What we know:
alpha/beta
Amino acid sequence: LILPAGIYFLALFLLVLTLKLKKIKDKLPYLFVLLAAFDLFYVANKVIPFTYKELVFPSHPLIEFLQKNSEYYRFAGSEASNIESNFATYYRLFSTEGYDTLYPRYYGELVWAGDNGVYKEDISRTTVVFPTTRSDAQHRLENLLGVKYILEKDDNYKSEWDSNYNLFPSERYQLVWQRKNWKIYENLKVLPRAFLAGSFLVI
């Protein structure tokens, strides 16, 4: 509190000094700008962290695989393998999730219904979270939204190429990348990001 109090009294002193010395009245705005700039830079240096972008968005072989192969398709996480909302934007990847103060309600209703196939009226206002239940409804949603790659963190893996057929049946998914307990499955039933449909059904 010492520095804020000092700045306050200094500003007050400059104001009183201006009232008594008319000659520096025109210079008062410049003095206040300098004082405010000093305060802002001090607070920024003290509170806001400044670091190299590589420490916030580090490179990883999993990310590199997605950058090389995903093209315009989306990816999604499962259980403990989720990547935080909006992080994909930095890596120029496409995700089904995101944080935004405003987003289309119909999209949120669609994604949240992918949890178990049941419509939910009470959904998050700011965050779209893709379901991780591995249900049939989620698989259909992955196909519809162009989710080609699904991430998995399997702490119980047994070998360097160990497909988890219980969660990712072979008729739907194929293991395409693994590094120890981190895996990437390709969705074999995925639809293109844009396509023409001969008919549609309004639900």
